[in-house]
Automatic annotation (TrEMBL):
It comes from Tunturiibacter lichenicola. Keywords: Membrane, Transmembrane, Transmembrane helix. Residues 231-317 form the Neurotransmitter-gated ion-channel transmembrane domain. It is found in: Membrane. PANTHER family: NEUROTRANSMITTER GATED ION CHANNEL. Its main location: membrane. GO terms for cellular component: membrane. Residues 29-222 form the Neurotransmitter-gated ion-channel ligand-binding domain. It is a multi-pass membrane protein. Pfam families: Neur_chan_LBD (PF02931), Neur_chan_memb (PF02932). This is Neurotransmitter-gated ion-channel ligand-binding domain-containing protein. GO terms for molecular function: extracellular ligand-gated monoatomic ion channel activity; transmembrane signaling receptor activity.
Length: 347
């Protein structure tokens, strides 16, 4: 996909003397596959479209650069007509004219190349640059949601039949980075540095081990939206039932209305914000806070029922004492549970 190219040769620059048609087929591997060609990669991101946790994917656009040396393209000094242009001499090729490393994005969902260039200098160094838009799959760890940091990965691997023909350079090209322009900014995410690694990886039992070059981009979620739009309103709804502990235990009807109303309000609130939450099969920090809020309101209903039955059976003084203690037990318990969840999920 990125550099999957078949391999014919366009005439070089006018600064090169006309030479007989070469007997070497430039569409074949430079060393005939005897030794691997080292390929250096560079990734420059110019547009961040979206990060989709529910589909476990992200979409970006930018420039992918590949650079390697083809000894067959080295120009002898005597072949250059104009020495003044020797240092800047480049030749342009088409993809079908020249051998190019067959590599692909292992985690690609879709990929579109809009434009490309393929040039070689007098020393045989070939540089391929393409402008691309791609959608990639990615694993997200959302247990800390919405206070999480994710790592977006661009996994580049050689195609199966050419795995032994190339190796990835240990360092990226200088063109690697993220554009500071506004198109790389997302309202919900803070974009950090782009890192690069190249190593040998083991795949599943049907595929042999292979080399892999990985570009990793760390992104941190901006949690302000969730803090002010979800956590604060949820905490307020959860703490409203505290007022029942100032109402006489005989007022069962009024006592029960408050936590029941808040419980229904929280259910409606959760349904409203569901579309803004990731759909994962495990409990996130926000899920745990919601469950704790539901549980506190539910326990408040049990307490109201218990003290009402106690005073109906002649245990009014005990019922009033238990009910009065709820003035501080309820909010302290809620605060303690939230701190415990934060320590469990966020550390």
């Amino acid at each position: 996909m990125f550099l999957i190219m078949a391999p014919i040769s366009i005439p070089a620059s006018s600064a090169v003397k006309t030479a007989p048609k070469p007997s070497v087929d430039l569409r074949k591997h430079p060393t005939g596959g005897k030794t691997p060609i080292e390929v250096s990669l560079g990734l420059y991101i110019t547009n961040f479209v979206a990060i989709d946790e529910s589909r476990e994917s992200f979409e970006v656009g930018g420039y992918l650069t590949g650079r390697w040396q083809d000894p067959r393209l080295v120009l002898p000094p005597g072949q250059i007509a104009d020495k003044a242009t020797a240092q800047t001499l480049t030749r342009t090729f088409r993809l079908e004219d020249l051998w190019t490393p067959a590599i692909e994005a292992a985690n690609s969902i879709s990929h579109k190349t809009t434009q490309y260039s393929l040039i070689a200098d007098r020393d045989g160094f070939v540089t391929y640059i393409e402008r691309f838009d791609t959608v990639l799959s990615n694993d997200y760890d959302l247990k800390r949601f919405p206070f999480d940091t994710q790592v977006l990965q661009f996994e580049v691997q050689p195609f199966l039949s050419t795995a032994s023909e190339i190796r990835f350079a240990p360092q990226p090209l200088q063109s690697t980075g993220v554009s500071p322009e506004q198109h790389t900014q997302l309202a919900a995410w803070e974009i950090n540095d782009l890192r690069y690694t190249a190593e040998k990886v083991a795949r599943d039992r049907f595929l042999p081990p292979t080399q892999e070059a990985v570009f990793q981009l760390a992104v941190k979620r901006r949690s302000g939206f969730y803090l002010w739009k979800i956590f604060v309103p949820l905490a307020m709804m959860t703490l409203v039932p505290v007022v029942v502990f100032w109402i006489d235990v005989e007022q069962f009807d009024w006592l029960l209305k408050v936590p029941m109303t808040m419980l229904l309000s929280m259910v409606a609130f959760e349904f409203t914000i569901t579309r803004d939450l990731p759909r994962v099969g495990y409990v996130t920090f926000l899920d745990a806070v919601f469950l704790a809020s539901f549980a506190l309101c539910f326990l408040c209903i049990f307490e109201i029922t218990a003290v009402y039955l106690m005073q109906k059976r002649g245990m009014r003084s005990t019922a009033e004492k238990v009910h009065s203690n709820g003035k501080w037990i309820y909010p302290v318990t809620y605060l303690g549970v939230i701190l415990l969840l934060a320590a469990t999920f966020l550390t």
